[in-house]
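Fig. S4 source data, part A: sequence.
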Amino acid sequence: MNFLPHFLRCLSMLLLLVVCSSTAAPLLRPLTPDQGLSQGSVRDLLLDKDGFLWLATDGGINRYDSTRLNHINAEGYQLRELPFSKLLQDSSGRLWAASAHAGIYLFNPANAVFELFMPMPVPANNEQAGAHSIISLLEYDKDTLLFLMDDALYRLPLSTAAPERLFSLSEQGVENGWLRTAIVVDGNVFIGGFNGLYFLEYASKKPTLLPHLTPAMTAAENTNHDDQKHVKYLELQHERVWIGTVEGLYSIATADIQQYIQQQSRYTPQQHVPRHNIWQMLWQGEQALLATEQGLYQFNPADNSITRLLQLTRSDLGLFDDNILDIVADNYGGYWLGSRDDGAYYWHPRSAAFSNISRHSDNSNSLSNEKVYTLKAAGNNTLWIGTSNGLNKLDLASGDITRYLINNDTKAIWHSGTILAIFPLSDNQLWLQTAAGLRLFDIKENRLSLPPSNNDTDAHLLASATGFAYRFNNQFYFVADNAFYRYQPDTAEVEPLPELDRVFANLIFGGFIGETAKPGQLLLSAADQLWLYDTAQRQVHLLYQYPQYQPELNRQADAMVTDDNGTLWVGFAGHGLMGFDQQTLQLKHTLTTADNAYALQRDNEGYIWFSSHKGLFRLDPQSLQAEHFTKADGLPTHEYNGAASARLPGGKLAFGSMRGVTVVNTAALATENLKPSAVITGISTQTGNQLQLHGNLNERHIDLSYQDLGIELNFSSMNFRDAHKMQYRFWLEGAQELRYPVQHSSKVVFPQLSRGDYIFYVVALSPTNGQESEPARIFLHVSASPWLSGWALLAYLLLLLTAGGSLLTIRRNQHRLINQAHRKVRLSEQRLKQALASVDSGAWEWQADTNLFYASRVQQMLGYPENMNPMTLSQHEALIHPDDKANYTAQWQRFIQQPEQSFDCTYRMQHRDGHWLWFRDIGKVTEQDEDSAVRRVLGTFSNITETRASQEKARLFGEAFQQTRDWVVILDQQQRVIAANQSFATAFGSLEQYIDQPRTHHLGISLVRRRFYTKLLRSMQSGQHWQGEEQVITPDGRERPTLINISAIGEQQQTFFVLVFTDITAQKMAEDELRYLANYDALTGLPNRALLMDRIYHGIDQARRDRRSLALCFIDLDKFKQINDSLGHDIGDLLLKEVAKRLTSTLRDSDTVARLGGDEFVILLEGYKNDDNISHVARKMLTVVSEPMQLGTHTVGVSPSIGIAVYPEDAINATELLKHADVAMYHAKEAGRNNFQFFTAEMNEKAHMRLARETRLRNALHNNEFVNFYQPIINSQTNRIVGAEVLLRWQSNQGLISPAEFIPLSEELRLIINMTQQLLERALADLKKWHDSGYQLYLSVNLSTQHLEQPSLAEHTRNLLLKYDLPASCLRFEVTESALMRDHRSAIDTMLALSELGIQLALDDFGTGYSSLKYLKELPIDGIKIDRSFVQDIGIDSSDETIIEAMLSMANSLGMYCVAEGVETEQQLAFFSRRQCYLIQGYLFARPMPEQDMFAFLQQEHANL
């Protein structure tokens, strides 16, 4: 037996007094005629073994499955007009219903109908059965029922269905009485009637009247003795018979009753409740619920106390009667209550767990405003409530509310009375964050004051601190004027927090969320991000960023709480709930049960509560199941505010909303571990057999036909409490496989199922504990249509063959007779039809006596069915176009009035498809009566649609001919102008003289070309076309390119020519421009690569024929990029144009100057005899290009590097010649720039070698062949490792390659940036490993010139540090002097950004350059590295020692650290130790080593400590 439902009911009883002590309106879920109940007068309630709720009403029987209400019918008729008094489910599961006046019905679950089991019995006095009433029905044993009718008790054997009377009041001498109730106890029957309680010994049928009243009871003041005697409820419980009467509850011990019956021993009954009308009792453990005329009570028999739980009239449903006639309990601790005339209502004690404190205009003991922004519990009995207008103090013990800081200005919205956060300071003082800033509130004086400050600036900041105030360690963190500050109230000190400013300057800050498990560490929110702030170290780093990062959506974290499992839960707006490991802060869970998760709290049971804009949620951290609470569960609203929650003394929780404060008694919301159930409750079809079955259909086999469409399946969890939030998962298996996602819908509709067998499954999911029910299933069989079976198809074939043969024989005979009989008629008809069809016409007739209009066009031309011919005149007019109808009607009326005239009208009629046809009707009167009235009209109609369409087309063509922008002219066969459009006349002048007297026109074409066209036109035949381009000269002298289209039209005897001239001037101009752009450089106007290559090919061909040389000079401007970057691209473009101009003016017209792109130019020199001539030209180009240029306000100078290749000595084709000139140019750059070099074979070989090295280097980078080596930096004082320099090595298949061989080439190819980024990624990963192992050291990384030119270097480094959770202090960058000289401004900006990040910078190879002292002054340098070139001469050259001493002294004065590199001897170490330089790097301690050796080195050092 499942004891859990009984346990839940007992538990709910224990909580009833707690949760129902509030005077709040009870939450009732109605089941009334508004929800489909057949009638509102509920006489009995029954919850059957399957979980269905049955309701007996004065208008039939209803069944409810928590989602759907069904009216139950009888076989062949409805029961809605019959009143039912009692429902019974016997021990065999059969369901019985007693109709007051129709008899007893038995429910047939197979077809879901009631069948009449026993008609209304006819009493012995033969009175009409309808005059009597069955009052109650009960089971005696599995074969016998008992029922009460009027004043008698009857026995109903199920085998015979013949009732037998056992007892009646009339037999006891009581007339005009009636019985109300009965129970069976130990085989005997207790009977309650209007006059008292009877005991009936079943075997002997001997009755005994049992007194249940004492004289004292009846003599009590204000009692009604008749009502006290009137027994309407009986129950055996706790060895007592409980007697409910119209006035009072009484009981008698069963032992006393036995003694009284056997020995006539007197006994004393007990009176428990003296006044109330007891309709029903429901025992819950040791206590009971009483359904009375004044509502529902809880009864405690230990002290006979009763407590009212609810009244129907106190609900929000507008009820006026508190009578509760029946009560049944469900399996989830809820109750169904039957009212007298207002239907049934479901009530659950859980709904009283939610209470609301809000604003009431008519009650001073209410909130100052309903919009609650913050809550704070203080002491044992106080809750502070901050609202949109005012601060409220709630005494939790008494419920009294005291209001403060109310602004009476109704126009004010955001003011000092708008309370955003509350921080209790003492019993008499509060810190408040208001809309006007941070304030100190004196409770006794009801006065706000500004926080103490040391100066006006701090006072302004505190006064304007309107956002994100947070108290931690008695200090306030706040935001003011877009900056972060920390305020110490004890000292009035305000301290800026620049580390937060830097991080959140470009982010949308969301607030301080709370303190993590690490002391002093706060969790901060930004849009789509969480940050950690170490308040002691004052360091900030990113903890979490949402994968689909969209900060513009401003999805912020709101609150945090930690559960018993070590999970830190953070609520987000827009993301829901996220769980992080409390220690590692790694993300563990992401729950999107609700989009918004606000105001997190943890209750005494360990559940996590949070609010949202959809109500409240409770999360079980163990199962991650979240239960959703809404208005249907008792909440007053769905919209709650972020950060507004508090934990109250005693374990209750409070949440602030837009409608006040919701207080949650979490103890009253215990979650049961009850597994849900799933029941398939109905199946129906919309067509076919229109099947309608409902009830428990689990495991049923249902046969459906091919005609059954719209198959709907209903199902339910039988959970009345959670029906509104229950979810289901269902699927279909069989001939079709269908699976559906989890959803709230409790039905599914299949439009049609193909023939075959199916199984439908459904599973219910509990919204409270997440458990799934066992799958419920139903078996479906869909049969095929009978006319598609094999036998049916064979029968069709045989029948078709037989019928075909018979029809063929009959057809032949009929055909012969018809041919003979109608041959003449056919011939005549055919002739008439041909005559009419030839003109697309027909005949029509109108007869006045019938007003019918006959015309074959209705079906033949208009497409209407034949039965529309004939039609009335009004029907005929209805088909006429609205624009033509008035004219038709007028002409018809005039024709009828003047019959001597003919009828002639043209109009449109509508085709069946909607389009319009034109007709012309002509008619004559053929018959008149003696009064000359028209009796008959005959006429013909003609379909003139094509004629009208041709006319319209001709009009449109003429308009198009005149309006087209092309010049159109029409010539006759003699090529004379006979027509021209307006565009032709506008271009060539008036043509009237040509048209009036046709003659030829020159058409703007030259004489020579006119001869061509004359010959062409003479050769063209009708239907031929010709197209070509021509230059036409208009009378204004303009020469216009045109496209001429000539078409020959007409018949063989007469041909015309249509000439269409299209002006293509714009097209030609566009083609010329595209041709220019394809061959010339847009900036300089010089030939581009395409035109250059064409000229080189042409030049080589010419030189080959002339046996002469040809030279190609490849020019690249030196240091052009620096000018472009420093002065801008506009100056760079001016410089390129000036160089192009100078080169063009220097060379011959026959030479070609071309620009390939960027700063590369190519010169093609043709017809030179020897190299001396070429050298002379090259020197001229060097001179003219090197001269200073005045570009705007800037005077700049560049020098060229020229590479020369000669044909045919260096190459014999254009591509090779250009490539060799390029190779020679690179050698000119390597030779010092500003010179020229002729190509040699050695250059080509070097170029190939260089290309091979470049390829190897790129492949090495792609294949991750570069590895990190580390050289320790030792503190010689402690002899411990404090740092290491990261060095890059190339681990090729030929062994390690020295950096000197690949670093310069990688810088030239700009691969050094990617190489260093990979080095830094590997280095920080290694450093993280060393730090985690307890080895705290820093890393030094070398930067090149190209790194300092990257503005994103600082951001990239910051992201890597965040990735590996490393502080910036563990990383140092070393910069050489040469790197600073190239782009000084960019280097400074990059180094400042790195310094602000917290990374230390050192000047490497210090003393080897020219400007080291200058850099120490201008740049954020933290240290210097003394170059090994000085160190190696210690003890050898005293000058070097003096220089080193000066360096050390200067660094010490500037507060910089020094690292001596290249230390290899003890003498060198001693030199630096004496001068207090203790950071040493060199072979004396260790050589560079890979990571595994470095880790071993660290371990060895640690072991030696």
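Fig. S4 source data, part B ends here. The longest helix spans residues 790-838.
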